[in-house]
Structures are given as C-alpha cells and as structure tokens.
Design brief:
Layout: H1 3-13, H2 18-29, E1 59-61, E2 64-67, E3 70-73, H3 87-95, H4 108-121, H5 132-147, H6 154-168, H7 177-193, H8 197-217, H9 229-249, H10 252-255, H11 258-274, H12 296-305, E4 317-319, E5 324-329, E6 334-339, E7 343-348, E8 368-372, E9 375-378, H13 390-396, E10 404-406, E11 414-415, E12 419-420, E13 426-434, E14 437-444, E15 455-463, E16 466-474, E17 480-485, E18 491-494, E19 498-502, E20 508-514, E21 516-528, E22 531-542, E23 546-552
Antiparallel strand pairs: 1-2, 2-3, 4-5, 5-6, 6-7, 7-8, 8-9, 10-17, 11-12, 13-14, 14-15, 15-16, 16-23, 17-22, 18-19, 19-20, 20-23, 21-22
C-alpha cells in the first residue's frame, strides 16, 4: 500500500465514530438467524392507512418494471438478483414501492401476486432483498398495504415478522444517517402492525433510535445534516409517515411524540422550500436528482394534511426596498437570495456533511445555482448513478460544479463511490447588505495540500439585475479554472472576454470576464438517475490569482 493510499485512508477513517467501527466489525462476524414463527398476529388499528401517493407506479406490465430510467423483466426467481442490473436498481425492485404508488388500489390483484412471489422467491436470508435498507423500505410498504386490505393472508403477516427479525440483527449503526432513520421507521411500523411482546420490543427500539437520531440529524435551521435536498424530501416524508401512523393506530407511545415530530417537519419544510428553484423543484447540491424523492409540493401537501406548516428558521430578510429577499441557513451553510421576476440565487458555503457521514457529499464548496425569469441558468452536476466507477467520481468532482478547480484536483477528496478523504472546510463566511445589493463572502481550505497551503476565496455581489462572482486564490498553484455549467435550455455565445446567454423565454443575460480567458465547452447535466443530458459550460482559465465574472440582464 502506497503512502498516498495510507494518507487517504487516514483522512477517511479518522472522522468515524467508535460505534461505526464496532458495528462494522460485529456485522463481519455475526450471522442473521431467524426463528421461523408462524403465529404473528395483526394489531387492530383505529383506521386503515391513507396518505397521498408520493411516487409514480413502476409497473409497465405484470412482469415488467422500470426504475431509475431503466426497464427490466420480472419473469422468474433469478430476476430479483439479476447480476446484469445495478445494485441500486435491484434495491428498488425489492422495495415494493408500487404497493403504495399512484393508482395502487387499482392494482390489488397484481400486488397480491407480487407479494406472494417475493415471499416464495426470496427465502431468508439471502439476496439483496434481505439487506437492511431494502428490508426497511419494504416492511413499511407491506404494513401500509396490508392495513388497507379487507383480508390479510397469514403468510403476509408472518413475512413481515420474519423480515423485521432480520432487520433487527442488521441495524445500520455502522452507517448512521438516513439509513438508520429508515431502519428505525421500519421497526416502528412493524411494532405498530403486529401484536405481542416481540412487536412491542421492536416499537420501543425504533422509537428509541428516532428519539436519538432526529435531534442529531436535523440542524436548527431545519436542514438534514447530510445537506442533500433530495434526502431532505425523503426524510421529511418518513417523519410524516410516523405522524400518520400515530393517527391510524392511536398508540400512546406515538401520540406523545407528535408535537416534537411536527416541529421538526415545520422547520424542515421551510428548508426544503428555501433550497428549491422557482420551478418548484429542488436545487442539485450534493447527491440530488429529480424523481427519486417526492417533489417539494407533494411533501408540503402531505405535511399540511397532518397539521404541519413551514416555519422558516430564520425568516427571510428584505432589503433594497423589499425588491430583494435573502435567507441565511447558517447551520447548513447555504444562502438564498430572491431576485425580482422569479429569480433565485442559491450559494453554497457548506461543509460536505457530517464528518462521520460525508458519503452523499460532493466536492462543490463555494458553488452556486441561479435561476432568472423562472428558468434555471447555472446548474450543478446532479447525479445519474451510484456505485464506484469513474463516472460516479466525475459527477461528484469539483469540475462538475459551479466553483473553482485548482491543478486538476478536487477540493475534497471524493473517492470509491461514498468515501471522502481530506475535505474542504469553509470559513470566514459573511453576508453584508449594501445599498445596491447583497455581498456574500466565504473561503475554503480544500487545496491546503498544495504547496503553500492554498486557499480559495469567493465573493458574490447580487443586485436586482446583476450577479457578480469574484474568485481569488491565495498560495501557490499552476492552473485555476472556474466553471459555470448552463442548463441545457440556455444558449451561450461569446469571445474570450464577453458574450451573452439566451434564455428559452427570450431574455438575454450579458457576461464579461476580467482576469481570465473564457471558452464555451461541452458538459453534461444529470437531473435524474439513469439520465445524462448534454449541455454547455462557460469555462474560465485564470491569468493570475484572481478572476471576476459579471452577469447582467
């Protein structure tokens, strides 16, 4: 092993919690053992499950399904673990999300067949379906679906019990974050669905984990600590589900937690709205894409049906005669500025995520996204796939985001799919109101490994019709490149120093550069899993240590 690899491993591992090491060692040695009970019984509820369907159907026909932009056959038992499919695709197959997707009640017969097939063709405890994350999502889907049926077969109830047994022995304390929340939610659902002492233990264990993890994972400004707008929507939906479960079951252990859960949802909804564009969809910071999580409007509607309402923390601040509004999500590290005529600037001064869980983080420190006249103009990479290949690494890299890359290196050492070695630390963040606009400044030390412990500083000056980005590099470097990735619907023309952007609605944005030479390059944008869209990028090669780019409209 080379010294570089050893250094990368050191920077990756030194931030982990002791329990992450301990549980990883435990799971290497432990084997899942199930007691083949046949007497699990369904607990009576006050009302059957009802909630908005947040996801579209994955069924194309009885034996054909589609996930992540890719179709596949479900023709025999080998389809559940088809080596030709990605692990994430197979995970989605095992979630059985279609049980509660749009139009699910019209597919009852198909769903009965699907559940019976899953039970018959996925014996305990082998295959992707018995891993803890798909177990968690499927248990919840089965409980929701069974609660709506007039007749529930004993085999379905028994399978929920066996699956929960398996989950209990694989709780993801070695990962933590949104995975552990999903595990806890499944324990709560199973414990509320089944009767008996064992089910009571699952309910208690799940609630204990939620009591520990929700305050840990949600920051005071409402953001989930992994700092992905996509996972924000997923986790908020999870908490809405346990709120709805409290209403359906009438269980006191759930009801006493309703005020705390509602308060978290209220703040979380405001954060999700803050991190969305005028088109109503999320910004693509860190691992984020459309279609994998419920849309913000759907999450809001679900939450409002449960008595929740967005409570911004902190509230928006108007200035400049109320023509501009801004909100600083200080704990998360994002700033939003609302411009006239449906414009929004979203600025990233955030760390990648929690030190012990940066796996969904990108090397995007001091990046930004911009919408003008309701149209996205500057877009970050998004994500089209998970896994460990080079394309996954490229989409997480600095060059795929609207920030500065030095000497061809990433500002944070993203590697192996979900690993991060040395990571950028933002500092000296400040926001200043001036007569003609807002000034936002920040710096990061992600290039401190370069000779001279190099620092990147960025300043945004935002007016009613201007967006000015000034970058300065302190320390030694060879090449500095700033990039502004454009939405595919935005046209671009220009010389090395100036040019224009043309929006599909007809508006024109002028741009001019000083301290750098501009060129228009091909790029890709990844708004959904399984989808890469060709677009263009305004690429600026620094002449010296500083560069200023002015956009006016």
């Amino acid at each position: 092993m080379s010294w570089r690899t050893m250094l990368r491993l050191f920077h990756t591992l030194r931030h982990l919690k002791a329990e992450q090491f301990a549980y990883r060692l435990y799971y290497w040695c432990a084997k899942v053992r199930l007691a083949e009970r046949q007497d699990y019984r369904q607990r009576p509820w006050l009302a059957s499950w009802s909630s908005p369907a947040l996801l579209s159907s994955s069924f194309r026909s009885r034996d054909r399904v589609a996930f992540l932009g890719e179709e596949g056959d479900l023709t025999d038992k080998d389809s559940w673990n088809d080596l030709r499919k990605s692990k994430l695709w197979l995970y989605h197959l095992h979630y059985l999300d279609d049980l509660n997707a749009v139009g699910a009640d019209g597919r009852r017969d198909a769903h009965r067949c699907l559940i019976n097939r899953w039970i018959a063709e996925n014996p305990p405890v082998s295959g992707h379906g018995w891993e803890p994350y798909p177990l968690s999502l499927r248990i919840v889907n089965l409980v929701k679906w069974c609660s709506r049926q007039a007749l529930v077969e004993p085999a379905w109830v028994n399978s929920v019990g066996l699956q929960t047994q398996a989950l209990c022995q694989q709780l993801e304390f070695h990962i933590l974050g949104n995975h552990l929340l999903a595990n806890a939610k499944a324990l709560v659902f199973a414990g509320a669905f089944l009767e008996g002492d064992e089910a009571g233990q699952w309910l208690t264990r799940g609630l204990q984990i939620l009591d520990r993890e929700i305050p840990e994972q949600f920051l005071p400004d409402g953001g989930h600590f992994e700092r992905s707008p996509m996972y924000q929507a997923i986790v908020l939906s999870d908490i809405c589900d346990v709120l709805r479960l409290a209403e359906c079951t009438g269980l006191g252990e759930l009801h006493e937690r309703i005020p705390r859960w509602r308060e978290v949802v209220n703040r979380g909804l405001a954060w999700l709205g803050t991190m969305s564009h005028p088109d109503g969809r999320i910004a693509l910071f860190n691992d984020a894409a459309f279609g994998l999580a419920p849309e913000p409007a759907a999450v809001n509607a679900y939450a409002e049906s449960l008595g929740c309402h967005a409570t911004p923390q902190p509230p928006e601040k108007p200035f400049g005669g109320r023509k501009l509004l801004w909100r600083w999500l200080e704990q998360s590290g994002y700033c939003r500025v609302d411009l006239p005529e449906r414009g929004v600037a979203l600025l990233d001064l955030a760390p990648l995520g929690p030190d012990y869980l940066p796996g969904h983080g990108h090397a995007d420190t001091l990046s930004c996204e911009l919408s003008l006249f309701g149209q996205r103009v500057f877009v970050n990479s998004g994500i089209s796939q998970y896994g460990e290949d080079g394309e996954r690494q490229r989409q997480r890299g600095t060059a795929a985001h609207n920030t500065v890359e030095l000497d061809g290196k990433n500002s944070s050492d993203v590697w192996s799919g979900f690993r991060v070695g040395q990571r950028a630390r933002p500092f000296e963040r400040e926001i200043i109101e001036e007569e003609n606009g807002l000034v936002v400044r920040g710096a990061h030390d992600g290039y401190r490994s370069l000779a001279g412990r190099t620092i990147h500083r960025r300043e945004w000056r935002i007016g009613e019709r201007s967006f000015v980005v000034t970058d300065r590099i302190e320390g030694r470097f060879h090449d500095a490149v700033a990039r502004f990735h454009l939405h595919p619907d935005v046209a671009v023309e220009g010389t090395e120093q100036s040019g224009w952007l043309r929006l599909p609605t007809g508006e024109t944005v002028m741009w001019a550069v000083s301290g750098a030479r501009a060129q228009v390059c091909l790029s890709t944008w990844h708004p959904e899993f399984g989808r890469s869209v060709q677009t263009r990028c305004l690429q600026l090669h620094f002449d010296g240590p500083g560069c200023t780019t002015v956009f006016t409209w």
